[in-house]
Design a protein that fits this description.
The protein is mainly α. It has one domain. It contains twelve helices and no strands. The longest helix has about 35 residues. The two termini are about 25 Å apart.
């Protein structure tokens, strides 16, 4: 119970940072810092339990690599560099989750022939999704940050394809097409505006990918679909509507005229969403592990 209260206190402290900056120097957590904290803590929570879905020595290695990369994020002032490391860590997690399925897919293709549908699957293809070089060049910092985020999303998309998720074609693949627009967006708009709009499009992709994982974890743990009228699913639905509103109700000028702090608040809420979904997934995976240990 004490751990639960401590967790709630930490989350509430960060939520306050999403809306205002405290004036006490020792408790000074900026909105932008909160974005990184949510993303790091959420992914770390998931990594702890990810071996339930990625149960192989190669997967364990990948999860350890991801955690090590996250541990190198020590200066939140280096914002884009920190994001790049989070995206790289995510790609290692996706590889760890995909490895066994990739081996099985490769064996199946040897017996039945290659599958040329997008994206191609197999061990080599899975390894290509890892972001090994996550250095942000001094030129085109915003573009390269967006590029790495897209690659992290692509690595997660690959996981869904390799594991043959039923929702892949209708619910997951369209997110790839939307995120892929970043190249055109940067070609047509100033870098800061292009970054903001690309980020908002990617926020929707992160939400859609992670909520599918949340549904999967719940179904495996409870043997049925979640009750959408219960918490936290009611909150997830409200957050889904909020993500949709970012693009449905706003145009280029909206993001162009926005202050940096206003945009960081949007980033913070999206990062908070990722955090609570990762935490929910982890809780269900932890429950599944407990059932295995005490059938």
């Amino acid at each position: 119970m004490n751990n639960f209260i401590g967790c709630i206190f930490s989350v509430m402290t960060l939520l306050c940072a999403c809306t205002q900056r405290t004036t006490t120097p020792n408790l000074d957590v900026s909105v932008r810092d909160s974005v990184l904290i949510y993303k790091i803590q959420g992914l770390k929570e998931f990594i702890k339990e990810a071996d339930y879905w990625g149960d192989d020595i190669e997967s364990y290695w990948a999860f350890k690599q991801a955690d090590s990369i996250l541990n190198t994020i020590t200066d939140y002032g280096k914002y884009e560099e920190s994001l790049a490391r989070i995206y790289a860590a995510t790609s290692y997690v996706s590889y760890g989750l995909s490895y066994v399925a990739s081996v099985m897919e490769e064996c199946r293709q040897m017996a039945e022939g290659n599958d040329d549908s997008f994206p191609k699957t197999g061990i080599e293809e899975a390894q290509k999704k890892i972001i090994r070089d996550y250095t942000i060049p001094n030129d085109y910092i915003l573009f390269n940050t967006t590029r790495l985020e897209f690659r992290a999303l692509y690595s997660l998309l690959y996981f869904f394809k390799a594991n043959r998720f039923a929702e892949f074609e209708n619910r997951l693949l369209p997110n790839y097409d939307r995120s892929m627009m970043y190249k055109t967006i940067y070609a047509d708009m100033p870098p800061k505006v292009a970054y903001r709009i690309s980020s908002v499009l990617n926020m929707k992709s992160w939400f859609n990918y992670l909520i599918i994982l949340a549904q999967q974890a719940y179904m495996e743990n409870h043997g049925g679909q979640p009750d959408l009228d219960s918490m936290p699913w009611k909150e997830f639905i409200e957050l889904a509507m909020w993500h949709d509103s970012l693009t449905n109700d706003n145009d280029e000028s909206y993001y162009e005229n926005m202050t940096d702090n206003e945009f960081h608040k949007i980033e913070c809420k999206a990062a908070y969403t990722q955090y609570i979904i990762y935490k929910y997934i982890s809780e269900n995976l932890r429950g599944l592990k407990a059932k295995e240990n005490h059938p």
